[in-house]
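Researcher: Let's continue the batch. This sequence belongs to 4a-hydroxytetrahydrobiopterin dehydratase, and it's 77 residues. Same format as the previous ones, please.
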Amino acid sequence: MWSETDNKLYRAFTFSDFKEAFAFMTRVADIASRLNHHPTWTNTYNKVEIWLSTHDAGDIITIKDRELAKAIDTVAK
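Model: Same format as before. Here are the structure tokens for 4a-hydroxytetrahydrobiopterin dehydratase:
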């Protein structure tokens, strides 16, 4: 589930290992490039944390962020 905090959408994903987490990040990178909207994220071993906001709009949540979050959810399953 995505949460809204400090004008950002946030979600953490946990995978079985680093390789699975990295594969997820690769899939998200493809989507982000296609949508031309890129996340702020971190990866530590099997955990990926993602923050979404639209920098051009003053670092607030916009439809771009909601669309990217929805697309990310489809590859997280």
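Researcher: Any comment?
Model: The mean pLDDT is 96.
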